[in-house]
Amino acid sequence: MSDEKKEAGSLESAISDQERRDKLKEVDAALARAEAKEVPGAPVRTSKQMLLDATAMEAKDLEHYYRYVNSDDPNKPVVRQADGFSRVPTAEAEKYGIKTEVHGMILMRQPREKHVMRVTKQKERNAELLEAHNREVEATAEAVAKVLRDKHGLNISTERLLVRE
What we know:
By secondary structure, the chain is of the alpha+beta class. Among the domains are: 1-40; 48-116, no CATH class. 64% of the residues lie in helices and 11% in strands. It has helices at 2-38, 47-51, 55-60, 75-82, 90-94, 112-152, 158-161, and strands at residues 64-70, 86-87, 101-102, 105-111. Strands 1, 2, 3 and 4 form a four-stranded antiparallel beta sheet that branches. A hairpin with a 2-residue loop joins strand 3 (101-102) and strand 4. The longest helix has 41 residues, at 112-152. The radius of gyration is 32 Å and the shape is flat. The model has no long low-confidence stretch (mean pLDDT 85).
């Protein structure tokens, strides 16, 4: 009888192990579906992204920043050339299996220093724009305080006029 109990116990544990694996697979699939709903943007390897992928060149050539430029608008490549971009030679791109022209897009590159400088300027400008409204409100409060002081004889500080949250 003890042998029968051992066999029954091992059968139950085998079934429960299989059930656990199935349950884990279900939970894993549910988590993947939930993540797909919460993470914005397209999947990493869509067909368009695969066509416009120059990461092989970027990995080998760290001195340049690469981007595809829309050539349907004739002004875009000209503007990018004024920003320091130059067209990537076809022979150089083909070494890495990359196309230089894809559906009206041209592969161009820019020296990394210029790119970093441009991104830094953009960040500084964005930070300035985030604070610009505060400076305008402070200037308005100072103007109101001056009018109250000059015309009405009331001495009210600008800090009292401002509401800071």
